[in-house]
Amino acid sequence: MSLDIRTITDADLPDWARARRTGYLLPPSVSKTELAFRRELMDLERTQGAFDDGRCVATYRSFTQRLSVPGGASVTANAVSNVSVSATHRRRGLLSRMTDRDLREAKERGDAAATLIAAEYPIYGRFGFGPAARVTEWEVDVARTGLDPRHSGPGDGGRVDYVDAAEVREHGPALYERVRAVRHGLVDRPDVWWRRNTGALPVDDGPWAEPFFVLHRSAEGSVDGLLVFTSDDRWEAKLPHQTATVLDLVAVTPAAERALWLFLLSADWITRVRTGHRAPDDILPLLLPDPRAARVVTHADFLWVRPLDVPELLRARTYPVAGSLVIDVTDRSGLAGGRFLLEAGPGGASCAPTRRPADLTLSVAELGSLLLGDESAVRLAALGRVDEETPGTLARADALLRTGRRPWCADVF
């Protein structure tokens, strides 16, 4: 049998989509609606399939993405998605070959990094990806929060309103770009994202179950926040026991964020709230008079970053203090390794190759973990993953790289 890895054509798409579903252990049949959705979503020149005697047995695709870094700037990333290998064809190097090809093409395009959401933790470190942002999900017992159930209105001079999907498509994109400018770790949401998540672009043949959409407007009338949630319809002994599940909550200002949480927690009939994936340092628990009412149900790695252009990445972000650092980055693939001098401060940063002695030595994956400010160089050194060549450099690295708020990625892609 011959194994052929190649970019796919329109004619390959039904077989490719079936292989993706098979690899994810989903019902393998693919509807016409799903095929239409995937065709609009995908760039076939960046979509690979592995074929065994003409049958697709592994899938892989990538697309251009914008990733917000500390300080509000964005870098161009190669987003990796839809990675699958059928159980019949594991351990044959298919993923390695597809990934290597894709990352080399991304490097040639000039992408600063590659990104992905890892379904399984052990897979992607060997390709140079490191976990850069984590998520936490809470379940809130509303009765235990200590909040006044008579609460009404946002209390900040603004207002909250239920809106329809069309209004979300009108106001959501600009709002979200404002949020990305103040919160690092977020990735851009193209038009297809907004249409998919507001029911304008069907994904499958099932009926569209519209969630509740809520906008927060400031006292001046600007749209500063968006809340999207669903609610089940559960009653016991004529008493409501409804759980609200947050699908999206983004806000430009802390006031808008507080107002949207308080609105949801004061809604009639809702007795529990599932927060969805939030940053581990989300304000929600401390917003409650009794933070123990918010119970952690998920805490895990989420966004992984693979540096491809180290100077570009380190120049793009901001730094809370002034300092310099020489880092020696090892990369067994040869894509992003080298020794670099970072000179940074609140006013900006420069980064370029250097021959100066290294202060720190680390792998490209560990640099990916440090890039957005979530991980600690001191902690990685304790694990043997970062070597301190110059005494005192670990503390200096953390002072430069760590951020006051933790990075947060809201979206699966």
Automatic annotation (TrEMBL):
InterPro entries reported for this sequence: Acetyltransf_17, Acetyltransferase_Eis, Acyl_CoA_acyltransferase, Eis_dom, GNAT_dom, NAcTrfase_Eis, SCP2_sterol-bd_dom_sf
Residues bound to acetyl-CoA: V83, S84, V85, R91, R92, G93, L94, L95, S96
SUPFAM superfamilies noted in UniProt: Acyl-CoA N-acyltransferases (Nat) (SSF55729), SCP-like (SSF55718)
The N-acetyltransferase domain, residue ranges: 3-154
Molecular function terms from GO: aminoglycoside N-acetyltransferase activity
Active site per database record: Y124, F413
GO BP field: aminoglycoside antibiotic catabolic process
Protein name: GNAT family N-acetyltransferase
